[in-house]
Structures are given as structure tokens and as C-alpha cells.
Amino acid sequence: TIVDRQTVGSNYTFVIAGGGIAGLTIADRLTEDPSVSSLVLEAGPFDKGEDGILIPGAYAPYLYFWPNLVTVPQAGLNNRSIGTVCAKVVGGGSAINAMVFLRGDEGDYDAWSSLGNPGWRWKGLLPFFLKSENFTRPDLTFARAGNISWDDSFRGNSGLVQNSYPNYFFPCSANWWNAAKSISLEPVKDPSSGDKQGIFWIPTVLNATTMTRSYARRNHDDRVIASRPNYHVLASNAVTKVLFRGKQAVGVNYVPSGGGSSSTVYASNEVILAAGCLHTPQLLQLSGIGPPKLLRKFGISIVVDLPSAGKNLQDQPTLTVPYTSNPASVGANLEPNSGTLLSNATYNAEQRALYDSAGKGPHTIVSTLSTNIGSLSLRGATAAYKQIVAQARARTPADSLPADVEPTILEGYKAQRSLILQQFENSTVGVGAIHWGTADSAVIYHEKPLSRGSVAINSTDPLVDPLIYYMTVTDPIDLQVYTALFRKHRQIFSAPAMRALDPVEASPFGAQLVTEDEIAGVMRDQINPSNAHQCCTAAMMPRELGGVASSEQKVYGVAWLRVADISFWPMQIAAAPTATMYASAEKVGVPPKPLGFFPDLFLLVTGTQPRSLWLRTPCRTMTDCGAAIACRCH
Ligand SMILES: Cc1cc2nc3c(=O)[nH]c(=O)nc-3n(C[C@H](O)[C@H](O)[C@H](O)COP(=O)(O)OP(=O)(O)OC[C@H]3O[C@@H](n4cnc5c(N)ncnc54)[C@H](O)[C@@H]3O)c2cc1C
After folding, report:
1. How far away, in angstroms, is 282 Cα from ligand 1 center?
2. Core-most of 175, 209, 485, 549, by most CB within 10 Å?
């Protein structure tokens, strides 16, 4: 049921802050049990089914950006303050993202597991990847012509997220593909297999029947909201604070997103934070969970002294390299490309008519992208990987963090750094991706930063944006890795198949940039610190390693509070996040099986009904469980 401020209840089994990928997926799964009620509070509105949301070729993410987010000056990027984005709409990032639907590499999740999270290895997560998606194969003749390949054993067929491919490719994307092959980037059988180093078509969240976006509002919300009276969504209202009784989360306060009076809603079971990487730590801090110095500065009473809440911020910095090409020699070879829809109104109108009548053509491709991409391990990017790793090992990890870093955070960072350096030596784990949208620029993504940022409140007013410190490339090794990715990209553009299109690297880049220092110098001016893939600000890691939440996403130091969005990831993966977000939300939303539980005894001890006791997460460990004799742990 879609509720408003008049009809919303005051008590639910679960209250979920944030209706993005995690929030909607988990609410859907929890309310499969009719005895459980769930309220999702979402700061953004419902979208209106605009073309910019539904039609890939009309992509308009700015319709639902969180407005005016900007970073603090970034020391590694010549002190630039840079606009940064995340979603504010029911469905969260899934409603406005670029529809890329990629899994990370096996080693990414195995590293999560090594950080104290058994069950979060690739093998533990694979069943949830399969559960989350419904893959539709492309037409086989088209797949052969376009070099699309996949392995059915890695694709799910019964999930709710629609996964398929555009049915068109721009002719010149074949030049990029052949150029990449000619420098030994091999086609990958299936990028969803846990090893995707090489080149491949980008799987997308595309509904193959309607050829429109598949997003959490459609696949997890619209599907059930009318038929489940136990499932409520209140849009355009922002959670402002988690309420505690002692150390137990009991509910939240919320206000209309445009401002207004505060209301309270209680959760008889759990409060689940799913407000995304930039806002979940803000909520924790406003609620008294965070670095004590910061909380004291704003006069916030400390509920848990947890210095790591808001730290460990990671993103996937993005570098756009502009190109000009010689129209006289290239001309028809390059057209149409992904820019033609914008530059040629007649072509756009013709292709839109084709899409509307037959669901075909370039409008099935997200307008800012083309159809193929390359994923690179550091070994695959540069023969000098050993020197880079040696220099990284020689560096003191504390030098990559603020001088006053808290000791547990430093220990956790050392553990992460060591795992990332192992990945650098391993040819099966990605560190970056390279893409050419077929028009006048190419993009290079740096996926495994060693630099760490943070998010911190700047006011006790919950409607004031937090301060965002990405700290991009403040660890100098990051620039070395990024330069290696850039050089690999250049090799592709210098290969004969691309030279046939005569692309010329344009200012501020250009052939005059040769040395490491020359390239890095321009990069500092050009890198965008974010690809809107922010993560990890409430990391699941042991508390003594600077973790904020346990491997069951339970926030340390309090009961009945979990973090379910991308904040709980400990480290970045070598992929865009959506596929892993859906899979991790499926995993978080699964009821653990109760083990030998004695309901009558529970009633006797606690005086409450043992309804859906598996949901009562404090029972998962003996130490958490007040009535240990009745709460059998699982
Ligand atoms: C422009 C853009 C392009 C992207 N492209 C891709 C892509 O192509 N492929 C890919 O895999 N990933 C992409 N991403 C990233 C991906 O969408 C996110 O990583 C993912 O949505 C994160 O899921 P989440 O559940 O953690 O948070 P989100 O989906 O971001 O949801 C968080 C929700 O919480 C709400 N919220 C915040 N604060 C509050 C509050 N106080 N109270 C109530 N609600 C609140 C927000 O409005 C938001 O709707 C993109 C993201 C953006 C913004």
C-alpha cells in the first residue's frame, strides 16, 4: 500500500529507512510472511514513468538526483570541489542508473569473506545472484553478429530483475572490439562467471519484452504493493534519526523531505538502514553512533562510540578522455554513433519511431554508453605490475589515512590493503575498466582504490547534506594504477582497427603527454572522484578492524539495528554495484531457519509471542540474547 502522512501507521514489525535497491528488495522479501509488517520511508518521490527513466536511449538520470551534493575540496585533485550524485527516488539508484548489470570477480567477494565475513564469498553469494535475476537470451543470430556470449549455468531465470541485452550495436563498436582483441584482450565467455578479465558485451537491466528499464520500483515494489496490506511505502519523507530505548533501536523520526514537522514510527523488531552510502552514515551519526569527537562537536549524545561510522568511503573514480576525429577521412565510418541521437534530430526521431513500434534500434542502448567494455586486472594492464605492488608494499599504510586515525581503523585498512595487493598480483581480479561510447570520448574507471575517504555530518539538521571527502588518489599508488589503465586504453586507440577511424586524443590530453608525471598531472585535473558507485561507509568487518556492522549487518553496540545498503560492503568490487546490491539484499532478506526453538518457554520468559522469531536478529548470537535459554541461536 502506498501511504501518506495521514494514513501511515505508527507501529510496524520493520521500519526501513530508504527505498532504493536494498530497501525495496528486503521489504518485498520480509513481507512474503503475512504476519510481518514493513514500512519503507523514502526521501524521494515516485517517478512518473518518464521516458528518461524507462527508455535507455532517452536516459535522463538528473531527473532524480539528490540535489546540489558537492565534495569538499579534494587534495589529490588539485583542490577541486566536485558535484557528486546519488539517487533520490523510489527505487533509488536502480531508477536512474546506467543499467549496467555486472557481477564482481570471485576474488572480490572472497576478500570480503577474508575480512571476517564467512558466507560472503563468491560461492556463498552465487545462489543469490541466480535468485535475483531473470536472464533473457538475445536472438542467436544477432548474438553471433555482435559477439555476445554467455554461459547459462551462471544466469538465473526465476528472479525479478530482468537481465538482457540491447538489440542493436553501433557499427564502429566493432572497431573498438577488434582493436582490443589485437592487443590481446580476449573475449570473455560470460562476465557473470566470477572472472571477466577481457572484453565482453555489457549485460543490462533491460526487460526484453518491453525493452524498458527493470528497476526496484517495478520488480520489487509495484509487483506486490497493492496485494500486500502488510507492506507500506511512504515516499518524499526523510528519516532523520533512529530512536533507542537504552541500546535497542525501537523506531525512527522522519520529516517531509521539503521540511515540516517531525513524526515517529516504531519497529517492534528491527530498524533497517538502507539510505545509501552517503546518507546511512549521516543517519548513524545523527542518531549518536559515530566518531565521539564529531558527535560532541554537534552536541549529539553518544549512543555508541564507533569512530568507523562514516569512514572507509570508496568509489570508482572516472576519467573521461576526449577525442576529435578527422571528419573528412572518417565521415560515414563513424556514423551513426552514440552521439548521433543527440546531434541529429531526424535520425533520433526515426529511431525513436522504430523503438516505439518494434522495440528495436539504438534506443535500446543507454544513451551515454555503447555495448561493449573491457575489464582489466593490474597484470593485464601493465607488465610493471610487480614494481607497483613492491612500491605499495614499501609504503607505510598509515600514510594513506589521516594522521589522527583511530587504531582499529588502521588495522582494518592494513587488512584491506594487503588483500587488494594480492589482487594486484592475481590475473583474475579486476582493477579497472575501459569503455568507448562510440562518440567523442572514452571513459576509464578505476575500481580498486587504495585511498580511503569519509562522510561526516555538517549540521544537526538532517536535511543539510553531509561533508563528502572522497580523498581520491591521495594514495600515490592509485595514480600509478590509473596511469597503467590509461596507457592500455591508449594502446587500443592506437591499434589499426581504431586507427581506421582516425581518432585524435584531444586537449587537455594528447600525444604530447608521454611520461608518468605528464599523464598524472593532467589526470589530477580531470578525474571525477565518483562514478556514483560509493560504498563501504558502514563496513561489515570485525569491530577490532574498524567495522561498523557484523557479517549479519548488525550495527555494533546496539540491538535491532541493521545496515542493508551498499554502506555495509567492506571493499569495492571490480564491477558496477547493482547486480551485487540485488544479490546482497536477497541474502540479507532471507529468513534464517530456526533451530530447535521452544515457543512456550519463550512466552514464559519474555511474555511476548514468538511470532516470526527468526526475524528477531538479536537472537542470532547468545551474547545478544537476553533470554538465552529461549532464544536458540542460529
Ligand atoms: C547516475 C547513476 C548511475 C549509476 N549507474 C550504475 C550502473 O550503470 N550500474 C550499476 O551497477 N550501478 C550504477 N549506479 C550505482 C547503483 O545504482 C547504486 O550503487 C545502488 O543503487 C546502491 O543501492 P542502495 O540500495 O545501497 O542505495 P540506493 O539505491 O541509492 O537507495 C538509497 C535510497 O535511500 C534514500 N534516502 C537517503 N537518505 C534517506 C533518508 N534520510 N530517509 C529516507 N530515505 C533516504 C535515497 O533517496 C535513495 O532512494 C549508478 C548510480 C547513479 C546515481
Report:
1. 15
2. 549
By CB neighbour count within 10 A (0-12 exposed, 13-18 middle, 19+ buried), where does 302 fall?
middle
- Cβ of 44 closer than 6 Å to ligand 1, yes or no, is yes
Q: Report the interhelical angle of 407-424 vs 106-114 (nearest 10°).
A: 150
**Ligand 1, pocket-test mutation among 565, 582, 588, most atoms within 8 A of CB:** 565
Please name which of 462, 464, 459, 467 lies closest in space to residue 310, comparing C-alpha atoms: 467
- DSSP element (H, E) containing 212: strand 212-213
- Which residues make beta-bridge pairs with 311? 454
* Dihedral pair phi/psi, residue 16, rounded to 5°: -115, 125
Q: Which atom of ligand 1 is nearest to the CA of 66?
A: 47
Which ligand 1 atom sits closest to the C-alpha of 279?
A: 38
Write down the pLDDT at residue 321: 97
Can you tell me the distance from the alpha carbon of 348 to that of 346, in angstroms, rounded to the nearest whole number?
5
> Is residue 389 helix, strand or coil?
helix
Cβ of 17 below 6 Å from ligand 1: yes
CA 253 to chain CA mean position, Å = 26
Give yes or no for residue 378 CB within 6 A of ligand 1.
no
Closest approach atom of ligand 1 to CA 95: 17
pLDDT tens, 3-44? Answer: 999 999 999 999 999 999 999 999 999 999 999 999 999 999
Q: What does the pLDDT read at residue 330?
A: 59
DSSP H stretches of helix in 407-495: 407-424, 476-494
Per-residue model confidence as pLDDT tens digits over 590-615: 754 444 444 444 444 444 433 333 34
Beta carbons within 8 Å of 36's beta carbon, 6+ residues apart: 13, 14, 30, 230, 269, 612, 615
Ligand 1 contact, 532 CB (< 6 A): yes
Q: Is the CB of 96 under 6 A from ligand 1?
A: yes
Name the residue with cell 587504531: 407
Picking from 118, 44, 21, the residue whose alpha carbon sits closest to that of residue 535 is 21
Q: Which residue's alpha carbon is nearest to atom 14 within ligand 1?
A: 97
pLDDT at 19: 98
pLDDT tens, residue by residue, 253-288: 999 999 999 999 999 999 999 999 999 999 999 999
What is the atom index within ligand 1 of the atom nearest the CA of 577? 11
Element (H, E) at 140: helix 140-146
ipTM, two decimals, is 1.00
Question: Scanning the structure block, which residue is given the C-alpha cell 569512514?
Answer: 311
Closest ligand 1 atom, CA of 21? 25
Q: Which burial class, exposed, middle or buried, applies to 298 when counting CB atoms under 10 A from its CB (0-12, 13-18, 19+)? A: middle
The binding site for FAD comprises: 89, 97-100, 239
Q: Is any ligand 1 atom within 6 A of the Cβ of residue 220?
A: no
22 lines ligand 1 (CB under 6 A): yes
Distance CA 505, CA 442 (A): 10
pLDDT at 61 over 90: yes
Closest CA to 190 of 148, 162, 160, 159: 148
